[in-house]
Amino acid sequence: MASKQTLVTVRVIAKDGKFLGDDIGGSLVTIRNVETGVMLAQGYTKGGSGNTTQIMETPRTRSQPIPTDEASEFTARLEIDEPAFIEVTAYGPIGGLQSAHKVSATQWVMPGKNITRGDAFLLEIPGLLVQVLEPPTHLSLSSLPGNVTISANVMMMCGCPITPGGVWNSEHFEIAAQIRKEGKIIDTVKLVYAGSPSQFTGSWSVKRKGYYEAIVYAFQPATGNTGLGRVTFFYMPD
Description:
By secondary structure, the chain is mostly beta strands. Helix content is about 5%, strand content about 50%. Strands 9-16-15-11-12 form a 5-stranded mixed beta sheet, with no helix packed on it.
């Protein structure tokens, strides 16, 4: 049987968010034949993140596709001559690799039967993007007590901003830093909105010498979305 070109359009959307668009680097999509292990296609999603109002605020029934509005996608052109059981994997966001996740799903594909309409092949990326901006990791303090500013950039996985009263309301997120020493939690510092979208800050005072780790995390109780970043700081006089 001659092979038939079969189109598979893959879109990647953040859990409780929008599509992973060019503004956050998109995502890397890989399609493999599960039975043979052969890679059939690979590429990056390209396009925008979609319309916020249509995606996040417009009611729709379960069977209605998510509005795409030229949203980010990757379309693979598979040359197959028989049914293929494929695994589609997305890794992203590429613009925030320290918080990137990998998700995958499997499905049968029939030669010549395109998967391009509606949601097409839709993958959902869970989590939150957390970038620790301060302190720089491996910060050496010169004296005690030493005040350590802890600040972070916290966004949805699509890069969408978290702000007071916004579509992604900062009041609906728990953002904090666990302070650890020798593997034990010794304190927790709440990070508060710093006045700019997605920026959160707090501080902690080092009163004893030693090595410390700050695990900066963000948690969205309504969805379970979680993200974190880690940095270290210390005071060890010669």
